Amino acid sequence: MYPTFYKLPMRGLIGLVLVLSTASVLAQAVYRQVDKNGKVTFSDQPPVVTNAPTGGPQPASANAPANSGLPYELRQVAQRYPVTLYSGEGCGPCNEARTLLTTRGIPFEERTIKSNEDVDALQRLSGQNALPLLTVGSQQLKGFSDVEWSRYLDAAGYPKSNSLPAGYRPPAARPLVAQQAPAAAAPRATDTPLQPPNPAPAPPSNAPGPNNPAGIKF
Hints:
Elements: E1 4-7, E2 17-20, E3 31-34, E4 40-43, H1 72-80, E5 83-87, H2 92-104, E6 108-112, H3 116-126, E7 130-131, E8 133-136, E9 139-142, H4 146-156, E10 174-175
Parallel strand pairs: 5-6, 6-10
Antiparallel strand pairs: 1-2, 1-7, 3-4, 5-8, 8-9
């Protein structure tokens, strides 16, 4: 089985097309490697054994989903290699991808691609405008393949069967680009109540006027 993609246009989300992409042979083993700085990578090539010490585990990602309440071992894996699914509406492969993660009990965060800003951000992130996209730690898996995705999840240390607590609820899906609330418009000049002009003071009763040209006092 080859990875399946849900193609998005460069701008806008109209005319989505389902395409297939050729991938490398999926039967190869995946090796997890940690360098001296603690950076973890996955490769189909076995690691070269050296005397250099390896670094410690990666710090938890700021985008990792809330893992409180998870079993200890699963929580440790989720903190080292957080899983994020990038999906879109009407995307069949995205639904299959979500089902795989949910059935296997993988704690993951989901980011949705809806607006033009989301499409642009996805292009910058992955170099393409197709869905689904899965990240496992720093690794990107483009297009859905249950075999390939399972291999990477195995290599990261995720359990093969669901071990989530009965009451676990995944975080709600969020847009890739956060939408900011529009700023309140400044009041227009017409919105300011108009104050009536101060009336001219009445002339003193003894001042000359049309009705009293001589300024007669009473």
